[in-house]
Amino acid sequence: MRNILFILFLSFGLTSFSQELNCSVVVNAQQTGSENLTIFKTLEKQLTEFVNNTKWTNRTFAPQERINCSMVISITNYSGEAFQGTIQVQSSRPVYGSSYSTPLYNVNDKDFTFRYLEFQNLIFNPTQFESNLVSAVAFHIYMVLALDADSFSKNGGDVYLKQAQAIVNYSQQENYKGWKLEDGLQSRFALIDNIVSPTFKEYRDVMYSYHREGLDVMSENAKQAKEKIAASLKPFEAMNSRRPNSFLLRTFFDAKSDEIEQIFSDGPSVNIASFQETLQKVAPTYASKWRNIKF
Fold first, then answer.
1. Dihedral sign, Cα of residue 116, residue 190, residue 144, residue 226
2. 9, 22, 186, 282 - which has most CB atoms within 10 Å?
3. How far, in Å, CA of 168 to CA of 180, rounded?
4. Using N-to-C axis directions, what is the helix angle for 132-150 and 158-171, rounded to 10°?
5. For the segment 243-284, what is each residue's pLDDT rounded down to a tens digit?
């Protein structure tokens, strides 16, 4: 009996304290010509532990609920403690009733500079700037959390978007690019500013209807799911008419173009004439993929 109670206690403890992310972190320093330096391996190890072991929310995640994501940091230049490069962040979530995982977030952040001293502590403070390395990584984590939550419930990511905004607000006081209005249309500032703006109000509704009302019913009724997915993207036309070729639309289709092509090139036939017209309007750069849609 004592052994059973111990096992139950251990299982409960592991579930209660499981963090939110199952994140693969890679630091690629090949472009520097010094990729074998121990500092890059140390950075990769520390970031892996930081991302996966930090408690980012007040929710309790069971191990199987952890969000799968990846971060690839490509260092292009460094001098002493100063590093310059990019960070590519991707995430996915499982589709109900299947073994398939659908991509949610796919952003290549090119304004990524930071200072790092080997073995320095990486600590996230939700209300205060600690370092640009921590701020940039934490910002993307909260975007991953927000879009994952939005895909399961309408506006479910509100609390995470507010934290992402807080990170932008206190980080823009520092002398790093990516946090301010003047840093361009594909910055961290632009990403969070767009996603909470009424100008792009349809974006989060699409995230919910595409995933929860479309993909998640695919195992039960594939034809109905395809029709719902096609209908879910229609609101993007209104968004695109207000702001053509927006950063948000590009991030959505960077993540989803392959998936959409595959969904509508197989399985039960649905009327997609209007859907193809929508795709050509809102994502013309993927025209070659849309032409492959046969049903």
1. negative
2. 282
3. 8
4. 160
5. 999 999 999 999 999 999 999 988 888 888 899 999 999 999
Q: 226 lies in which domain range? A: 214-290
**Band (50; pLDDT cuts 50, 70, 90):** very high
Cα–Cα distance between 38 and 24 in angstroms, integer? 19
158 and 223 together in one domain: no
Q: Is residue 202 part of a domain?
A: no
32 with 77: CB under 8 angstroms? yes
In a domain, 7, yes or no: no
Mean pLDDT for the stretch of residues 118-144: 97
Kindly state whether residue 190 falls inside one of the protein's structural domains: yes
Is residue 85 assigned to a domain?
yes
Sheet of 101-115, strand order:
21-28, 67-79, 82-94, 101-115
- CA 176 – CA 154 distance, rounded (Å): 33
Domain count, the chain: 2
Structure tokens at 144: 């991953």
- Of 196, 222, 239, which residue is a domain's last? 196
Where among 196, 228, 255 does a domain terminate?
A: 196
**What is d(CA 61, CA 93) in angstroms, rounded to the nearest whole number?**
14
Looking at the fold, whether 235 and 165 belong to one and the same domain comes out as: no
d(CA 125, CA 122): 10
For residue 37, the tally of other CB atoms under 10 A from its CB is 13
Summarize the confidence of residues 31-60 as an average pLDDT. Answer: 94
Do 172 and 219 share a structural domain? no
Residue 70 is inside which H or E element, if any?
strand 67-79
Task: Give yes or no: residues 50 and 145 share one domain.
Answer: yes
Q: Please give the helix or strand (H or E) that residue 247 lies within, else none.
A: helix 247-263
> pTM for this structure?
0.92
List of residues 6+ apart from 252 with CB closer than 8 A: 203, 206, 236
